[in-house]
Structures are given as structure tokens and as C-alpha cells.
Write a structure and sequence with these properties.
mainly alpha, 2 domains, 14 helices, about 80% helix, globular
Length: about 375
């Protein structure tokens, strides 16, 4: 049976190293959205992120439960990291020529995850993962087969795999999983930071070949301010989130982990990908009207991220923020500003909207202590 581990331990350096691959995954998904610029590429990103995040978050649950300082687990986790790297490398052409490589690497990710859970966790967690593994293996088989066949069968099989994975907890249960609240919250917070880092990286990527002058500096700083405002939107509730997780019973905590940190974080990450894609295209010519798709990516990215923080808060019982819901709707309304005026105009208004939501929320918290 598993060795006794300190479930209150902070996130390990190995986990941080593991997350570096996720940065690359977000970069690759952003690239698909940038290159495609249409509904088909957006749907591909939605499906690929769904299957990737399911297993990536599965590894966050795994490292919450095993002793990552043991040599065998370190080596196996590095193996999983390598498989995720191959998945990331396959992303740009996954629907054209590298679908099989994507599927093979995904199968390795699933098998390593199941093996480490079975060998390194408690009796209750082994029983819990054995209920989940058949669904994971079935989905992995669908991804592998779809990648081998390509075309319409791939679309159907990969979409079906994504749907199966995210329905799995409702077809079985999360009973038996043990979640260490502090570690789990910290790990997912770091994932969000890593993902938001992509929205910073694309500023530099989009500015390649553009002379550095006050005009570029303004749009770059506005882009940074928007990313910072979204960071603040998520981490403003950091202590309340951890408290809610600690206060929950074991079974309820596992369900909160699934819905709050699984489903809603998927939406948060999808919002970051959309925002990053919009920024990458907008930064190069920020004072001209944007193509419709680019303006939409900026508005939808911010709106999706904002509304998912509301869902996250609601799931954990922190409360519904009406100012955030209004901000999400207002973010969608900024799309014509970008498409009819300029990227810098849309970015300025988006930043002002998120900051205003934060200010209103902070004032409300002062007026109603404990809210």
C-alpha cells in the first residue's frame, strides 16, 4: 500500500516543473486559434483543451495524493510530462497529420496516471480511481482511433471522448478521493498564473518587427493591465476559496474539487486561450479596426474568464458577484469597439470594465463584512 505522505505539504518543485509543459500546451492551442481564425478552429480548441485538461487536472489530483519525492514517482511523473509534451507538439496539426501521435501520447498519459494512482494512494482512492479508469481508457481509445482515422470520424470520436470524460463523474462518483485543500488550491492557482503568463508572452510575440515607440508601449501596457486585472479577479478570493475547501466534508470536498477546479477552471483556461489569441493578432496593428474574429476573441475571452470566476465562487459558496456578471456582459459589448474603432480602444474599455467590477466588489465587501 502507499507510503504515508504529508498532504498539507506545499506544491513541490517537480509539480512546478510539470506545469511548464502546460505553458507550451496553452501556447499551441492559442496558435491553432490564431492560425484558423474561424469557428472550426475554435471548436477544435474547445475539444482538444477538454480532453487535455481532464487528464492534466487528473495529474493535479494525483500529485495531491502521492509522495512526489519518491524516486519511482518522480521518474513516472517525468514520463507523463514527456507524453504531455508530445501531445502539445502534435496540437497544431492534430486534425491534419499528427492526430495519431496525439492519441498515442494521450494513451501513455492515461496509463501512467492510472498506474501511479493504483500504486501510490490510499485504499479508498484506489477504489475510487478504479471506477474512473475504464472511462479514461475508453476515451483514450477513442482519441487514438480518431487520430488514426482522421477526417469526419476523428471529429466525432474526439468530440465523443471529450463528452464522455466530462460526464464520467456523473456516471460514477468521486467518493473515496481525498483532497488536501491547501495543496489543491495552491496547485490550481499556479496553473492559472501559468496560463495567464501566455497572455503576457503573446505581447512580445505579436510585437516582433513592430518599432518600439509610445504607441506600441501604450497597447503593450494596456494588455498587461488587462491580464493583471484578470489575475486579481481570480486571486481576490484566494483565502475564501481555501477556507471553503477546508470546511467541506471529504466527499463534498471531492465534488467541489471536480466542479470548481475542474469544470469552471476549464472555462477559465479557455477564456485565457481566446484572449491570448486576440492579443497576438491585435498587438501588431493596434490603432486600426480589428477583423471581426479578433475583436470577438478579446471580448469573449474576457467575458468567459469573468463569468467562470462567478461560477467558481458560487460552487464554493462564496457568493454570486453581480458586478462580475455585469462585467461579463459588458465585455461582450466591447466587440464592436474593436472591430469598428481599434484594438487599443477595446483593450482600454475591457480593462476599465474588469477594474470597475473589482472596485465595486471591494466596496460591497467593506459595506457588508464577511460577505
Amino acid at each position: 500500500m502507499s507510503e504515508t505522505i504529508d498532504r498539507s505539504a506545499r506544491v513541490s518543485t517537480l509539480e512546478l516543473f510539470f506545469d511548464l509543459v502546460f505553458v507550451f500546451t496553452i501556447t499551441q492551442l492559442t496558435g491553432v486559434l490564431v492560425a484558423g481564425g474561424d469557428a472550426a478552429s475554435a471548436l477544435q480548441v474547445v475539444v482538444m483543451l477538454a480532453v487535455i485538461w481532464w487528464m492534466y487536472d487528473g495529474y493535479a489530483w494525483l500529485t495531491n495524493a502521492i509522495a512526489t519525492d519518491l524516486l519511482r514517482f518522480r521518474l513516472l511523473l517525468l514520463g507523463g510530462m514527456g507524453a504531455f509534451l508530445v501531445i502539445a507538439l502534435a496540437i497544431p496539426s492534430a486534425y491534419d497529420s499528427t492526430g495519431l501521435a496525439f492519441g498515442l501520447a494521450y494513451a501513455v498519459v492515461v496509463l501512467l496516471h492510472a498506474g501511479m494512482y493504483a500504486k501510490g494512494t490510499s485504499v479508498s482512492e484506489v477504489a475510487a480511481i478504479l471506477r474512473i479508469v475504464p472511462f479514461n481508457l475508453t476515451a483514450a481509445g477513442m482519441v487514438l482511433l480518431g487520430g488514426a482515422l482522421g477526417g469526419r470520424p476523428q471529429d466525432l470520436l474526439w468530440g465523443g471522448a471529450a463528452l464522455l470524460l466530462w460526464l464520467t463523474p456523473w456516471l460514477t462518483s468521486t467518493e473515496g478521493f481525498v483532497i488536501a485543500a491547501e495543496h489543491f488550491c495552491e496547485r490550481h492557482g499556479l496553473v492559472i498564473i501559468v496560463a495567464l503568463g501566455e497572455s503576457i508572452v503573446v505581447i512580445g510575440a505579436g510585437a516582433v518587427g513592430v518599432p518600439l515607440d509610445p504607441r506600441l508601449a501604450v497597447v503593450a501596457l494596456l494588455s498587461l493591465a488587462l491580464s493583471a486585472a484578470l489575475w486579481w479577479l481570480y486571486f481576490r478570493d484566494e483565502q475564501a476559496v481555501e477556507h471553503a475547501m477546508k470546511a467541506a466534508s471529504d466527499d463534498r470536498r471531492a465534488r467541489l474539487a471536480l466542479v470548481g477546479f475542474g469544470y469552471w477552471h476549464y472555462g477559465l483556461l479557455l477564456g485565457v486561450v481566446a484572449l491570448a489569441a486576440g492579443l497576438k493578432k491585435a498587438i501588431g496593428d493596434p490603432y486600426e479596426p480589428l477583423a471581426g474574429w479578433i475583436g470577438t476573441e478579446l471580448g469573449v475571452g474576457v467575458a468567459l474568464f469573468t463569468v467562470c470566476t462567478v461560477g467558481f465562487r458560487t460552487t464554493l459558496g462564496i457568493g454570486v458577484s453581480r458586478s462580475r456578471l455585469v462585467a461579463a456582459a459588458a465585455a461582450l459589448a466591447t466587440i464592436p469597439i474593436g472591430t469598428e474603432w481599434s484594438a487599443v480602444g477595446e483593450l482600454a474599455v475591457l480593462t476599465a470594465i474588469v477594474v470597475a467590477a473589482l472596485v465595486i466588489e471591494a466596496r460591497h465587501a467593506v459595506e457588508l463584512p464577511g460577505a
